[in-house]
Every structure is written in C-alpha cells, then in structure tokens.
Amino acid sequence: MIAGYKEGSLVDVPGRVAVVVFTAGCNLRCPYCHNADLVLPERIAKLRPVSEERLISRIKYLYDRGLISAVAITGGEPLLWNGLTMFLSKLREIKGLFLKVDTNGTVPSRLKELVNNKLVDYIAMDVKSSPAKYALAVGLAKFDCKHIKSSAEFLKGQSKVMYEFRTTVVPSLITEEDFEGLLEFVIGANLYALQRFRPLSTLDPKYSQLEPTSSAFLGKMAAYFVPYVKKVEIRK
C-alpha cells in the first residue's frame, strides 16, 4: 500500500523536483533503517493508506503546472507491493513525467518486468555490504546474495533505464575489508553513490548511538572504487 508522500523533493531524483511516494512493507530489517514505520508490521498496521487515485490526480496537477517533473517511489521495498506495476502504468499516462524506483534488489523478477516494460526511467539499487556481512547489514540470521547479484548484473547489462548502486556507509557494517566484497556487485557500474550514515532514529536503537561516517573514510572508499566504476559520488 501507499503509506504517504512528500511534495517538492530536490534530492531524490537528480536534477529534478519530485513527489516522493512511500510504500509500506519490507523483507529486510536493516538495523540502521530510518523508516521503521514502513518496515515493522505492527507499525504498518497503524498507518492509513493513501488513495492511489487522489495521489495520481495530485501528481498530475503539480506536473501540469510545472511544479514537479518526477516521481520517486521508495519504501519499505516498493517491489513487494503488488500494485506497483499498475500504479506506474497510470503514471506513465502523464506524458513526460520522469519515474524513479528505489529497491533493495531482492526481487529481480519484478525489477526486470518494470525495466523491460518501460515503466520506469531510473532505478536506484541499494547494496548493503560485502557478501560476508550482508546478513548482518540486513538484520537477518542468514542471507543468500544470489538475488542481489542477479539484480545488479541485470542493471549493468541493460540500456533501457538509468541506474545507480548506492551504499549507506555505516561504520560498523562497512570497513576496508568489505571493499573487495562490495566490488563483486558494483564493478563496471555507471554510478556508485556512497551515502554518509547519520545516527538519527534507527530501527535498532543501538545504531542511533554510532558516530556519523567520517569524511576521511568516505574519501578512502571512493578512491578505491574509482578505477572500477564509471563514476563514484559521495552524498553527504
């Protein structure tokens, strides 16, 4: 379901003003997640769904008046929402509207469907950590990275949409020893974005006590990946 939306974002779609749509539900439990209300079932149950028809009408109103040029759909994990394909299809009827979807990469079949059917213009895929630490980074007892690798290879091998890989650099989950493992996912990518972790309200309260990622470490990490991807970007 759609749990909420935000108008006028300047940071969610590069170079565009966007409406950000939040979907509820996620199959991961990343301890540093800032969106617990969209992840934990007991919190989701208290949310009031947003009417899709009213939201589409609002988006069209803003677009027609030149107040936005894009929609970014995030979560939670949007690819788990059964209504996503239909929602994007309706937004596609607004000619010229730029559509972006954020994903954790765990549902490659749905990702391929969206891309191959030209329902999206931009995909931002999270890469949480190296394979050795992936389970820890997503808050699960164990985790098989095969779907993450499948989604990553698909995005790198297609030319239908723009895409980026991005990693939130959490001090306890990303160290220099994880660089080589992360490279397995992102090597050859068009864009790899490194995001500074900020200790705001987190799903696991212990992570709110961590220090923010240092600029020095972000710089060292960026330098490591420069030879292997077309562009590295640090987002602060």
What would the keywords be for this entry?
236 residues; TIM Barrel; globular; single chain; 20% strand; alpha/beta
Describe the protein in words.
The chain is an alpha/beta fold. It has a single domain, classed as TIM Barrel, CATH 3.20.20. Helices cover 30% and strands 20% of the residues. The chain has an 8-stranded mixed sheet with strand order 1-2-3-4-5-6-7-8, covered by helices on one side. Strand 6, helix 7 and strand 7 form a beta-alpha-beta unit. Helix 4 packs parallel to helix 6. The chain is globular and about 50 Å long. The mean pLDDT is 96.
Brief overview, please?
Helix content is 30%, strand content 20%. By secondary structure, the chain is α/β, with parallel strands linked by helices.
Helix content: 25-40%
Number of strand elements: 8
* Overall residue-averaged pLDDT value: 96
Radius of gyration: 17 Å
The CATH topology label is TIM Barrel
Strand order of the largest sheet: 1-2-3-4-5-6-7-8
What is the C-level CATH assignment? Alpha Beta
Structural class: alpha/beta
CATH H level, superfamily name? Aldolase class I
Give the number of helices: 8
Choose one word for the global shape.
globular
Uncertain runs with pLDDT below 50, 5 residues or more?
Answer: none
Roughly how many Å apart are the termini? Answer: 30 Å
Largest sheet: 8 strands, mixed
CATH architecture: Alpha-Beta Barrel
H-E string: EEHHEHEHEHHEHEHE
Query: How many distinct domains?
Result: 1
Walk me through the topology.
Blueprint: E1 2-9, E2 18-23, H1 41-44, H2 52-64, E3 70-74, H3 84-92, E4 98-103, H4 108-116, E5 122-126, H5 134-137, H6 146-157, E6 162-169, H7 179-186, E7 192-196, H8 215-225, E8 232-235
Parallel strand pairs: 2-3, 3-4, 4-5, 5-6, 6-7, 7-8
Antiparallel strand pairs: 1-2
